[in-house]
Amino acid sequence: xxxxxxxxxxxxxxxxxxxxxxxxxxxLIIITSKAYANPxxxxxxxxxxxxxxxxxxxxFGITTNNWSITTSVCNWVGIECGSKHNRVTSLNFSFxxxxxxxxxxxxxxxxxxYITIKNNSFQGPLPVEILNLRRLKLFGIGNNEFSGEIPxxxxxxxxxxxxxxxxxxxxxxIPVSIFNLTSLLTLNLQNNQLSGRIPREVGxxxxxxDLLLDGNQLTEIPSEIGKLGRLKTLNLESNLISVPIPxxxxxxxxxxxxxxxxxxxxxxxxxxxxxxxPALKGLYLSVNHLSGRLPSTLWQCExxxxxxMADNEFTGSIPTNFRNLTWAKQIVxxxxxxxxxxxxKGRKYMDYIQEISIYxxxxxxxxI
Length: 368
Ligand SMILES: *[C@@H]1O[C@H](CO)[C@@H](O)[C@H](O)[C@H]1NC(C)=O
Ligand SMILES: *[C@@H]1O[C@H](CO)[C@@H](O)[C@H](O)[C@H]1NC(C)=O
Ligand SMILES: *[C@@H]1O[C@H](CO)[C@@H](O)[C@H](O)[C@H]1NC(C)=O
Ligand SMILES: *[C@@H]1O[C@H](CO)[C@@H](O)[C@H](O)[C@H]1NC(C)=O
Ligand SMILES: *[C@@H]1O[C@H](CO)[C@@H](O)[C@H](O)[C@H]1NC(C)=O
Ligand SMILES: *[C@@H]1O[C@H](CO)[C@@H](O)[C@H](O)[C@H]1NC(C)=O
Ligand SMILES: *[C@@H]1O[C@H](CO)[C@@H](O)[C@H](O)[C@H]1NC(C)=O
Ligand SMILES: *[C@@H]1O[C@H](CO)[C@@H](O)[C@H](O)[C@H]1NC(C)=O
Prior knowledge:
The protein is α/β, with parallel strands linked by helices. The strands form four sheets. The chain has a 13-stranded mixed beta sheet, with no helix packed on it. A four-stranded parallel beta sheet has the order 8-10-12-14, with no helix packed on it. The longest helix has 13 residues, at about 40-55. Helices cover about 10% and strands about 20% of the residues. A hairpin with a 4-residue loop joins strand 2 (about 80) and strand 3. The chain has helices at about 5, 15-25, 30-35, 40-55, 60-65, 275, 345-350, and strands at about 55, 80, 85-90, 100, 115, 120-125, 140, 145-150, 160-165, 170, 185-190, 195, 210, 215-220, 235, 255-260, 280-285, 290-295, 305-310, 315, 330, 335-340, 355. It has a domain at about 280-368: Leucine-rich repeat, LRR (right-handed beta-alpha superhelix) (Alpha-Beta Horseshoe). Keywords: Leucine-rich repeat, Membrane, Repeat, Signal, Transmembrane, Transmembrane helix. It comes from Cucumis melo (Muskmelon). InterPro entries: DNA_repair-toleration, Leu-rich_rpt, Leu-rich_rpt_typical-subtyp, LRR_dom_sf, LRR_N_plant-typ. Pfam families: LRR_1, LRR_8, LRRNT_2.
């Protein structure tokens, strides 16, 4: 591997360090402190000049007019520096319309903590030199044109908290190494072409708050998902999962939104769903093959506002133990074998309800 080669000045290494390096090559560990002799703001400027040369289209002239070599890079649009070390700490090129790629020189910006380039036309490959950015907390490349497999080496960014790769054309399976990133708070891989199973190692991300994997072709969800005690959002909408919902999901006591819409989930729901999911606001389960009775406590969930259960195979009667309906924004139950009604007592409650579609719940799918 040539990662170390690119910025290293070999003469500065003493023998033992070279030895460590040799051993480290296999696991892609990079010794940055020695690799840059005296990195300073000029190092950062060279890296950004290299980046500028990788911009092939800048339709609004944002960098062409602004990134002038005669002004400090700290004044360039999209760049922020930290006052303490006078080094570049953040890149934000969101919505600039740029067509570009990341040069290997990006790895020299060793004080970077944030990279966000959402909604541009950045293309691959992602240079492995990104691994030199040991302080990186946010890596956001959503809605660009990266493709290929997600690089496994991303699993070695030690401080990363938000990994946002959504809206690209990544395919193949999710590398297990990603689940090595135990500081992760948000993992957003939505709207790619990822396939295969969600690895069991997902259960190692115990800090995770948002897991967004919707809009892929994933086929399996492991029971280890139940270990994510801080998870607030679990979104698996529009995948190809056709197993029962793992029991552990109903143990995620911090969960606010659970979206499993448009898969082929089978099996039923636990009756005491609200007891273990006290924070739940949105339960989106439409277009699956879920069956059995609706949880009798469903309307008792303290915070729930959206319930989507349409187009499943639920049977029995709609639970009637409402508190009142002031909480409801949407209740969607059509396309099941349910009987009963939702008692709406007067306009007062309706004022709070944006949409209640319970029509057809008696006869849709009733087969003779
Ligand atoms: C570049 O943009 C920044 C922020 O908008 C501005 O402060 C700076 O003066 C601009 N520099 C040049 C050379 O246009
Ligand atoms: C990045 O830039 C966009 C567009 O200018 C802005 O809306 C957003 O708040 C910025 N994000 C950060 C983290 O500075
Ligand atoms: C960002 O990109 C997404 C996907 O291409 C698009 O749907 C969205 O409208 C874009 N947002 C903006 C503000 O341009
Ligand atoms: C997991 O992370 C550690 C520490 O950052 C690293 O040494 C190791 O190589 C990583 N493992 C994988 C499979 O990426
Ligand atoms: C990560 O997850 C795997 C599979 O669940 C497990 O065997 C392993 O012990 C976990 N590693 C850590 C560090 O928790
Ligand atoms: C989901 O179920 C539907 C109807 O039974 C079936 O046509 C479709 O092939 C299934 N999809 C998957 C991914 O299992
Ligand atoms: C769910 O939580 C209960 C109570 O803490 C525990 O007994 C059960 O084993 C958990 N189930 C799963 C699948 O994690
Ligand atoms: C309905 O429920 C809400 C929230 O629980 C409560 O604030 C409100 O007083 C209740 N209204 C009636 C008429 O019971």
